[in-house]
Amino acid sequence: MRCDRRPLGVLAAVTKGLFILWAVPGQGGRPLQPPTLQQIQALVRHMAEDAQELFAFYEEDQHLAINNLCRNNRPPEWLRGPVMVPGGVRGTMVRMAQALQDITQHQRDLNPPDAEILRRLASTHLKVRGLLSNLEGLFPAPSLTPGRRPPPGPTAPTKVFRQKLEGCRILWSYARFMAKLSAQLEARSRRARREKRRSRRGSRLSARS
């Protein structure tokens, strides 16, 4: 069997990229059947890891890694949770997609087109779109009036430093939100496995009696 000698980090990045291509409609030929809880859980776990990496890079790149300026305990209301409530995850992802567009637009005004921060923001935005497109059934959406626009994203401060700081705090809060969501999905998956095992044991006992 051929041994792939590429570094594990490269293989992991390729795996994540292929998974995101699968997740986003029109990006890689997603299967027709809805994703399983395990597939959503894997996507959310990747997103939680990437959200933390994006925040760490942004904090350093924007020279905000002093005195924990970005790491406050007052996240925007739409990123506070509770996480797994009907419409909660979907609503948060809609707002996060808009916030990422706002942050990206500000960074485009400050950086060349090929800047690493722009690439990372675009990658995160793609993942948010991927999660949004796969939430049907797992997190039912509330009924919306046809043609109604989603709530506006956070208002951008006028000064450059305030814009940088606001973007950094949103990314910090987003990383924490995704970590909580990942942990809650993992707990939900564990409960489902336990219930399945109990059901099987009960079926075997009934068959013996």
Core attributes:
single chain, 209 residues, mainly alpha, 5 helices, 0% strand, elongated, disordered N terminus
Topology record:
Blueprint: H1 8-23, H2 37-61, H3 88-108, H4 116-133, H5 160-208
How would you portray this structure in words?
The protein is 62% helix and 0% strand. The N and C termini lie far apart (49 Å). It is mostly helical.
Short recap of the structure:
With 209 residues, the protein is an all-alpha fold. It has five helices and no strands. Helices cover 62% and strands 0% of the residues.
Low-confidence stretches: 1-6, 143-149
Number of strands: 0
In percent terms, what proportion of residues is strand? under 5%
Which of globular, elongated, flat, extended, rod-shaped describes the shape? elongated
Indicate the percent of residues in helices.
Answer: 55-70%
Radius of gyration: 20 Å
Q: What is the number of helices?
A: 5
The biggest beta sheet is recorded as: none
- pLDDT averaged residue by residue: 77
**Helix and strand run:** HHHHH
- Alpha-carbon distance between the termini? 49 Å
Structural class: mainly alpha
